[in-house]
What does this fold into?
Amino acid sequence: MTPRPILLDCDPGHDDAIAILLAVSDPGIDLRAVTTVAGNSTLPNTTRNALRVLDMVGRADIPVAAGRAAPLVRELSTAAVMHGEGGLEGPLPAEPSRPVLDVPAIELIEQVLIDADEPVTLVATGPLTNMADVVSRLPHLFPKIRELVIMGGAVDLGNWTPAAEFNIWVDPHAADIVFRSARVPDEGAGGRPAADRLALTMIGLEVTHKAWLTDEHADVLRDTGRAGRFVAELLDHFVGFHQRRFGWEGGPIHDAVTIAHLIDPTLVSALPMNVQIETESSLCMGRTVADRWAVTGLPANALVGLDIDRNRFVTMLLDHVSALP
Ligand code: BDR
Ligand code: CA
It folds into this structure.
């Protein structure tokens, strides 16, 4: 089987960093490029962090391009409280070994799609600002996109506001553009195949809040090599934050679930739903209004994750990270 080509758009971020590591550690995935967006931290920081994480695993061959520095309409709000001022509190060398590419993310995405001999899977683990650019500027390349898998949103409660999840809340207008042009992926979901729509899978908080690691997992990883030690030190910060802030035993590794879902599609259970994005109400800004019980009669436009087999997720993550050089 040839590895599945993917492009990861992210805002590292502790869990974004772990998503990168999971992607490069699986033989079934061919990480063709990484693009960055402002979210957890400013764009220079998320870009620098993506380069540093790839350095750490010896993958400075994977091209990295920076995308949007701010949401489409709203001011940028970052998650420094969770990820630190630089976006990735932790053990990496301060500076990457190479500069970011001198082309904007949208041009790298375009080139990756044009060059690919089979449709590419886009994975987005930050605000959807760059993905809105894909929708507005590259609709002619939709046939070259196998699907878009995002970490974002929630059917029920939010995490950044009572109503909204962080990635969607940061740039609800971009998310609105993406969800309006989306469709359910074909495979097994009874969706509406259409070349002018993006097949969309949403991995939201119902799933990722179950995908947590603890201090014990950090300790298991700490002695398994460079990548294991790096993830252990990320977890020291990230799990600690969730213990202090929410009183949880562990920290949810939100973004890694997107990649885990690609590695093993039986891990996450999901249903097709209509999802709309709130862009006006100040109380509910960024809410993913997911029609769980099909009360609107509107057609489903996304496959929405609802649950995950946590034990298998944890095993996959530990096995993959500890196998990295
Ligand atoms: C999302 O918000 C960010 O802080 C994380 O990296 C993740 O993508 C979870 O709500
Ligand atoms: Ca993220």
In short: The longest helix spans residues 226-246. The chain has a mean pLDDT of 94. Residues 4-323 form a domain with the Inosine-uridine Nucleoside N-ribohydrolase; Chain A fold (CATH 3.90.245.10). The two ends are 23 Å apart (CA to CA).
